[in-house]
Amino acid sequence: MANILIIIVVNLILFFRTLSFGYVSDDVPTFRNPPLFKNKIHKLFLWLIGSWKFKPQYEHLTTLIFHTLVGVFIYTAFGSNNVSFWAALLFSCNPANNQGSIWISGRGYVIPPLLLLISLSMPFLAPWTLWAMPYFNLGFIAPLGLVGSKSAYLLVIMPFIWLFWLKKFTRDVKFKANFEQVDEDKKFHFGKIILAIKTIGFYFTLGLIPFRITFYHSYLQSLAGSGKQKAYTMKDKFFWIGLSIIIFWAIYSLHKWDTLSYGLWWFFIMIAPFSNIKRLHQEISCRYLFAPLIGLMLALSYLIANYPLVVAVILAIYITKFTCVMHMYSDDYFVLEHSVIEDPKAWFAWHMRAMKRWEAQSYREALINWVMAKLISPNEFKLLYNIAVVLRLLKKDNEAKEYFALAIKNIIPGQEEELKPLIEDWQKGKVTLLT
Q1: What is the pLDDT of residue 93?
Q2: Angle at which helices 190-208 and 290-304 pack, to 10 degrees?
Q3: Angstrom distances, CA of residue 105 to CA of 24, 50, 63, 376
Q4: Domains of the chain by start residue, with CATH
Q5: With 90 as the cut, is the pLDDT of residue 435 above it?
């Protein structure tokens, strides 16, 4: 009980100041245009999963509670021992989980692992918690985290649960594919395996050493478009890190199955949907690391739990980094300012910064930010087109025509039909920005 209280107190102390934070990124449009609800119970459900919002203090308090519960159930799910205690604290304080521990709209990446941890801690609740998990797309594959655990027998009920949710899951995947995928994403070749290994290596490194905590990462950006060639090369440290850890786990697990091998298995299972081998989402994001980080911190704790000084040093590093980056969630302005400082090579961060200046009707500042983004990634259709729009607005018609022509040359294969109405509107004199 004392260890549980320590986990709760640490979370409260570390995240208490988030109660004064506002909405950022996807929080803002869902607050301004809330989803429809059928009744009060449905409204409460939407609020709990972070889809309906009415006051940031309450939403941040709920997020804090969810994150604290994850820490508590890490401790109980993995044995209520010294290893699971340090794993809970390491996870709670790791800044790589920021998009689940602070961001309100990231709650969909928090609830599935929390339900799985409850299933491990209290198997008598598993029929209900496992049934609820696949409501979230991550929760469809997450039950495979039971493999290799003392509660693996619970998997016998999963075929019935998967069958129940299959239609919704298929519909969600199809919607994501139609919204996100271009031609390159629909192809499978050997390069996709290289890409998946690199992605795993990046998340593994970021989870252990939170070297770059930002809302928009530059790594593997535009992998299906202008960054395609760079995405598939093996001349990348993260490819060799990913390959090494996969080989290590395979060899180690064949000889011994313990907390280290299980923790890494959990990491691999939870990161698999976001490994970019079949991209349906943003290329890299900290929210995808929330669930895998549980297994990674369990594996790390297994290695260092008997060395209190090492644990203390790592906790100090995590807490220091977290307190330095936490303020980016205080306001939608700061999340973008932090992003361009933490990872100035992320062209999408500059693009979003430009959008904010455009909304404030500061068109020349918006143009400067889009030009900054173009300097990073010169062949992005979105950037070239938006620059053309601003130049037309500023009555620089010749330059606008040049950038529009460049934009047309750099349409990502697979987006031609989608962009056809936009191009036709331009030719008619109508202009619309691309977000």
Answers
A1: 97
A2: 60
A3: 9, 5, 9, 28
A4: 2-333 (no CATH), 346-427 (1.25.40.10)
A5: no
